[in-house]
Design goal:
The complex is a heterodimer of chains A (275) and B (300). Chain A has a domain of 169 residues: MetI-like (MetI-like fold, Orthogonal Bundle). Chain A is built from 15 helices and no strands. Chain A starts with a helix and ends in a 5-residue tail after the last helix. Chain B is 69% helix and 3% strand. Chain B has twelve helices and two strands. Classes of the chains: A mainly alpha (275), B mainly alpha (300). The interface between A and B is large, with 116 and 109 residues.
């Protein structure tokens, strides 16, 4: 019985994929389904499909400045963080992949240890540091705080990709008479588009989804969407429909990012086999 | 070109490179950013952890007193044990499931790009929205899962029953993070040369042998990374349980980060919270180091 079981893992793994796909989609379907119902419908009789679909919850969000400003606040620190992380990580990953230098291994390992630090550890010192230099309640504060996690991860990922690019490429560019800047910007970076796409995905993934640091470092004027969502639950009773609609809207930027880097992402994860 | 981490070499820097200390110019921006956002705050934490801070002008040096209190605090030990149980459970579930999903994905043919995007989706949803999604999904009154389980005759209420709260949290974490393992394992699987499979077939290996003697050893590198990432991240989990169960019922789902956040921001106990932070961070470093040493050293 058991040997027969193991002789069939082709169909078994396909069933696992289908089963996991359903497991993945059901909660998402339920979120969307709740977002399309009125509150009376939600707390009323249970039904799997919305009996009277309505866009009122979305209208509520788009007409209320608290909600749409919060979306803007979140997107602004995510963008600052992503640009900053890529900006500092790309040169570092390049030199890590191309040169040995004093303390390189120690530095690389030290960067990794930062990725292991729980955000909760940094709550108090961050709050005091950013208050002291007047950055508290600005998107830059949250972006910088998130750099603690996105920069080591970016260096880590990019170094892996860059090391796979043969050094002959650097030498050939030099023989062709191209300066370093030309080589780096016009040849090296375009070749590594996939790597940069995957790194972008990981930076976005962390900065967009994080709550604890974003909540601690933002005051009244930069409240991010993740924080507004937790407040609404307690403030206006339990408005499940609006909460679900806001949830649907926070999923959309993720879908957009995956869509834009989909080719690089698929290539990055699948090593260029899928095109 | 091998874009993704394929072997354990990826965790270390190769030594066959020219030596040039001017390369420091390239890493300088990273060092500055991390120094600002990690070194200064960490020094602050260590500094607080040895002082009794009554207000910002009145503070006394207390040596290791807060460390002793933290390590003897039964609430810390409880949260720590719960944390270990949670991290072990999700790792045991997510790693094999992720490999199985990746193997299924290898056979998905033209659907691969679509499935990849679907898999990436949970990783891009804000963590508190993940909590909200599962709250809406699992509530016994309005949730699809909650209503379905109760309709099957099993009394289920995650807000009242500790066991149900645990199961719901584990189900949520599997939903949230298995994709990461699956995507990494998929990247590793696509890098295995076809010749390996052909050789295995010639030797008469069945599917189980292929998995055991070819695929798992070849996936070793990516799986080490997957386990390290899941170990670190599950040990820091805060937002999802905070939204879903609020640490309850009682304290039964209060993990280390939530306990620390209550202490630091809720009660503003600067000294004890700082000592807690240092211990917490050191434990994560210790686990990762132990895992790394025990797995990677075998290769050398």
């Amino acid at each position: 019985m058991s040997s027969r079981f193991f002789q069939q893992p082709v169909s078994l793994s396909r069933w696992v994929l289908v089963g996991y796909g359903v497991y993945l989609l059901l909660p998402l379907y339920w979120l969307l389904s709740m977002a399309l119902r009125s509150n009376a419908d939600i707390v009323g009789e249970f039904s799997i499909f919305p009996s009277a679909p309505t866009l009122a919850n979305f209208a509520e969000i788009f007409s209320n400045p608290v909600w749409y400003q919060a979306f803007g606040n979140s997107l602004s620190y995510v963008m600052i963080n992503t640009l900053l992380s890529l900006g500092v990580a790309i040169p570092a990953a390049y030199v890590f992949s191309r040169y040995r230098f004093l303390g390189d291994k120690q530095l690389f390992f030290w960067l990794l240890t930062n990725r292991m630090a729980p955000p909760a550890v940094f709550l108090l010192p961050f709050f005091q540091l950013y208050s002291a230099i007047g950055l508290f309640d600005t998107p830059l504060a949250v972006a910088l705080a998130h750099c603690l996690f996105t920069v080591p991860l970016s260096v880590w990922i990019l170094e892996g990709f860059f090391s796979g690019v043969p050094t002959e490429l650097d030498e050939m560019a030099r023989i062709d008479g191209h300066g370093f800047v030309y080589f780096f910007v016009r040849i090296f970076l375009p070749i590594n588009r996939g790597a940069i796409g995957v790194t972008l995905f990981f930076c976005f993934m962390f900065s967009w989804v994080e709550l604890l640091l974003a909540r601690t470092l933002s005051g009244a004027s930069t409240k991010p969407i993740v924080v507004v969502m937790t407040r609404t639950v307690s403030a206006s009773g339990l408005d499940w429909g609006v909460l679900a609609a806001a949830g649907v809207l926070t999923v959309l930027p993720g879908i957009l990012v995956v869509w834009f880097v989909r080719k690089d992402l698929v290539k990055g994860f699948a090593l260029g086999r899928v095109s | 070109m091998s874009p993704f981490p394929l072997n354990t070499k990826w965790l270390k820097l190769s030594s066959f490179k020219p030596k040039d200390n001017r390369a420091w110019l390239g890493v300088l921006p990273v060092v500055l950013v991390i120094a600002f956002s990690a070194v200064i705050p960490l020094m602050t934490v260590v500094n607080y952890s040895v002082q009794d801070i009554l207000d910002f002008n009145t503070r006394y040096f207390v040596g290791l007193q807060w460390y002793q209190e933290t390590l003897n605090d039964p609430r810390f030990i409880d949260a720590f044990v719960r944390q270990l149980g949670f991290s072990a459970t999700v790792l045991v579930l997510e790693v094999p499931l992720g490999i199985a999903v990746a193997k299924g994905l290898m056979r998905a043919g033209r659907a691969i790009p679509l499935v990849l995007i679907l898999l990436a989706l949970p990783l891009l949803i804000p963590w508190n929205v993940v909590g909200t999604i599962w709250q809406i999904y699992a509530r016994p009154d309005i949730g699809l899962l909650g209503v379905a389980v109760n309709a099957m005759g099993v009394s289920y209420n995650y807000t009242a029953e500790p066991l149900h709260a645990w199961l719901t949290l584990v189900a949520m974490d599997v939903w949230h993070w298995t994709s990461l393992v699956a995507l990494l394992a998929f990247a590793g699987l696509t890098a295995i040369p076809q010749a390996y499979y052909q050789a295995a077939e010639l030797d008469g290996a069945n599917k189980w042998h292929t998995l055991r003697y070819i695929e798992l050893p070849q996936l070793r590198g990516v799986l080490i990374i997957a386990v390290l990432l899941r170990l670190m991240d599950s040990f820091m989990i805060y937002t999802e349980p905070f939204v879903l169960t609020g640490g309850g019922p009682g304290n039964t789902t209060t993990f280390l980060s939530q306990y620390l956040a209550t202490m630091a921001v809720g009660q503003f106990d600067l000294g004890p919270a700082a000592a807690f932070s240092v211990v917490y961070f050191l434990f994560i470093l210790l686990f990762c180091w132990l895992f790394y040493v025990s797995v990677v050293r075998v290769d050398e």
